[in-house]
Design a protein that fits this description.
Chain lengths: 645, 371
Amino acid sequence: MHNLHAKANRMAASLTWRKPAALWFLPLIFLFIFTTLPLLSERGLWPFTTHFFNGLLLMVMSLVLVHQFFGFVHRLDRTDFYFSLPSSRTKLFAWLNLSALAHLAGPSLVIMGLNTILARLMPHTESGWYAYTPSPTSIWISYAGLLIRIFYFFFLLEVCYLITEKALTALGFFVMLNIIWPLMLFSFSDATSQFLPGFINPLVTALEEPSSLLVVIFQLFSPAIFTGGLAHYHLPLALMTLGMASLAFCLFRARQAGYSSGEGSVNWPFLLIQWMGVITLSLLGGYGAHYLRVWTTDSEFTPVNLSPAPFLIGTGLGFLLSLWTFNLIGNKGKIRWRSMVAAALTAALPYVVWLCIVMTGAGGFSTRLPEAGSLKRAGIYYSGAYYSLFSPEDSRPFLFELTEEEDLALLARIYRSVLSPDNPGLDLPRTLSSKGQSRDFVRLKNPFIPPYGGNEIYYPHLPETHLILETKDGRSCERSLTLPLYANNPDYLQLLRQNDRFFMAELSDYAAVDKFHVTFSLEATPCASAADKETWIHPLMAANEEEDYPFESLMQDMTRYIVISLREQGDRALAGLAAGAPCLIHVSLELPPGAGTFEDKPAITLPIDPERVPGLRELIDQALEIYEMITMDQRDLAEGRPAFD
Amino acid sequence: MMTAIPQSAPGLGWVFGKSFQRMRSLMLLFSFLFLLAMPIALLIIGRDNYLTLVSSYNFLEPAFGEQSLNQVLWPLHIILALISLAAVAVLASTGFRTFYLQNAVDRESSMPLGSSRLFLGRALALLAAFLFIFAVNAAATLAVFAGWGKIAHFLTYSAAYLKLFAATLELLAFCLVFLALSGTLFDAILTCLGIQFAWASSVLHILGMTNRLTDLETDILWLLSPAARLFISTFRPLSVWQSLIMIVFWTIVAWFFYKKRPAEYAGVRNGQLPWYPALQPFFVLWGGTLLGSFVHGLFAEEQSVLSSPVFYMGLAAGALLGQVVSTVVSGKQLRKTKMTKEILPVLAGLTLFALMTGLVCLCMAPAAQPW
C-alpha cells in the first residue's frame, strides 16, 4: 500500500516537471541577449540592465507559468484528470508550485551566475566607470529582493486563477487590480491634499521613506507596479509572499472541479474591482474636466476665480461611464439595470461623503493653525537635504526644531500670513486647485528680478515646508504649506539673523539656491598650515578669480556638506570648529532692493575642515582637479595646442 | 390538415440585424466616449477660452493649418484617434466573437445562407456602427460650434475628421483579414498587432541602416501598419483616395479568406493552421533586424551596419529567434521532426530582408543627412 502511494506521488511529481523546453531556453536566450551581451561588450552596463530585464522577464514568465501550471483549473476535463491523480491535493499543490517556481527562477539564476563569473574574469578597461558600479554582492542582494517580490506576483496571480472560472477573467481581474488599486490610492490621497491646503499627502511623503505598513498596502494588490521599487523591505514582503502562498493553498484545496465564481453566490472579485473602478474613474473624470478648464484658461498662474462646476460635471460623467462599462463587462455586453443601481449606490455613498468633507474644507483643517503664544515647539522637516556623493550616509532628510519663544513668534507670523482672507485657496467651496491657488498667493507676493536675468520678472520656485507644530496644551498638528520664506520677508530675514542653526538648515536644502542669492568668500585662518595653503586654500581662492570656473556652485556644495555634517550639533560645536579650522567660508544673503541695508544682511561663517567634515576632502580634490583642467586648457589654447589632447 | 407556414429564409438583413444588435451597447458606449472627447470637452473649455487659445500664436500654426486643425482641436483629435483605435479592436472582436466557437460556427454553417452574405452582413453592421459613432459626434460638435457662431471652424476641421474616419475604416478592413483567417480571437488580435509592429519596425530599421530615412513620408512604412495612419494624419497630409483603395483591397481580401475558411478552424490556434508559416517571414525579419541592430550597436558601432559581420551574425540569430518565438506564441509545439519546415520561413525572412534592402537602395535616394 505504501509503495503504491509512493509510486502515485512520484508519478504526479514527474507529471508536473514534464513541461515544454521552451519555458527554459526562451528566457535564457532573452536574458543572454539583454544582460550577458552588454557585459561582453565591456560597456559596464550589466549591473544596470540586469535588474530591469530580470524583472521584466520574470513578470512575463509568471503570467506564462501560472497559465501553464494552473490553467487546468479552468478546463473541466483537465481538472478531472489532475484531481483524480492518486496523490493528495497538498502534494499536488507543492509539486506544481515547486516546478513552476523552478521554471520561473531557474533561467535567471543561471544567467546571473554566468554574468557574475564573466564580470570577474573580464578585465575592467574603464576603471573610472567601474568605480561607480555596484558590487556583485549588492547586485545579488537586490536580485534576491526582486525574486521575493516576483514570487508574490506569482502567487497573487495564482490566487486570481483559483477564484475565477476562465483564464481571461483571471488575467483581466489581475490586470485591473494592479492598475486600479494604486490609481485609487494615489488619486484620492492627491485630491485630498489639493482640496485642503496644508494636508500632507501621505503617499508622497511615504514614498520617500515608506513604513512597513505602507509597503504592505502598496504591494497588496499591485505587485506589477511596485516590483521596480520597495527594494529594501525584504522581511515584510517575504511574509506577504508566504501569506499569499498559504491563501493559494487553501483555495487550491477547496477548489471544486466545476467551479464558477458567478453562479449561486456573489461574484465578489468582480464587485470589488467594480467598486474600486467606479469611484476611481469618477474622481479621474473630475480631474480631467477640472484641469481641462484650468489649462485652457489663459493665465500664467492658477486662475483665481475657479468654479467647482467642471470638476462636478467631470465626476458625473466619469461615474456614468465607469458604471456603464463595468455593467457591460459584468453582463457580457448587456445592460442590467438592477445590478447597476446597486453598484451606483455602493460607490456613490462613500464618494459623496468624501467630496462633502473636502469641498467644505474639512471643518477648517487648513485654517486651524496655532497662535504664536500657544506654541511650545515647532519642527521643520527638511526632506530635500542635498545629496552628497562623497558622504551618502549623511544625505538624509532631517527634522529641525525651534524652541525659543522669539523664534516661534516669527515662525507663527510667517505661517499665519498664509491664512489671510485674500488667499483664494482658502475660499469655499474648495476645488482641486485650492492648493495651487494658495501656493500662487504666496509666490505672487514676492516679485523678484534676478540680477543675471533679463527684464522679465522671475518668480522663484518655493518648495512646500513641512511643519510639525506642538502647542503648550499638548496638541500637535502637521501641515505642508508653501510659506513666504523669501528674502523680502522681514520675519524670515529676522529668523535667519537670530538663529544660525536655522540659517544652516535652510542652506542644506537643495531648493535654497532658488530661494535666495548668496555670496561666498574664503579666508585662511592662522590654523592653516603652509601645506594646506599651498595645496588647496590658495588654489580655491584663485579659482574665484577664474571666469570659467563654477566657483559659486562649488561653494554651494561645500556649504551643504558642512551644514549637513553640523546639523545635529549646537552653536558651541560650531564655534569650536570655526576656531580650529584652517579655512573659513563667509556666507551672506543678498537682499533685494528696498529690503534692508548692507548691515542687515543675514550672514554666517562656517569652518572648512576637510579632516572633520565627511566627504569634504574628496569634494575639494575633485574641485581642484577641474580647476587644474580649466587652467591647463587655457594654457594649451594660448600655446596653440588642441584642448584635452 | 396541417398548413405549412411560409417562412422567409434568413437573408442579409437578418445577419446585419443580428450582428448590429450584438454590438449595439458597445457602439453606444463608444459614441459616448467620442462625445466626451470632442463636444463635451469643448463645452468644458468654454467659448471664450477656445477663441482666446485659437487666436494666440503657436509655433505649430503652419502645420495645424495644413492638417485643418488648431491648438484646441489637435489634442482632442489625437484622443479621438486613440478611441477609434480601441473601438476598432472592441467592435470588430464583438462582431466576430461567435466565429471562433465551434458550436456557433456549426450553427451558422448549417443555415441556408452563403458565406458571402454572412461576411457582408457582419461587415455592414460594423460599417453602420462606425458611421453612427462618427455621425453622432459630428452632429454634436457641429451643434457646439453653431451655438458659438463658429461653424466655419467645424467646416475646416471636417476635412481632418473625414480622414480620421477613412483611416479608421482602413484599419477595420485590415483587421477583418486577420479575423477571417485566425482560429481564435486572441490569435487574431495578436497576429494583427504583431504584423503591424513587425512591418513598421523592420522598414524603419532598413531605411535607417541604408541611410534612406529622411522623414516619415515614406508610404511603404505604413502599408502594413494602418493603425499608425490614425495618428500620422495629424502630422502629414494623407490621401483619402489611398485610404479608400486600401479599404476596398483589404475588404476583398478578407471576404476571400472568409469564403475559403473551413468550419474546423474555429478554436484552433493559428500556429496549427496551414497559412501561418506564410506570415512568419515578417516575424523573422523583425527579429533579425532588431537583434542585428542591437548587437551591432553593442560591438561594432563605429562600422557601417551593412558592412559589419557582427550585424549579420545578429541578423541570423534574430531571424531564428523570431521564427521560434512566433511559433511558440502561436500555440505550435516545436518538434525535431519538423525542424526542416521551420527553416523555410527563416530563409524566406532573410530573403525578404535582402530583397527589401536591395529595393530600398535601388529605388530611393540616400538622405542628405541622417534623420
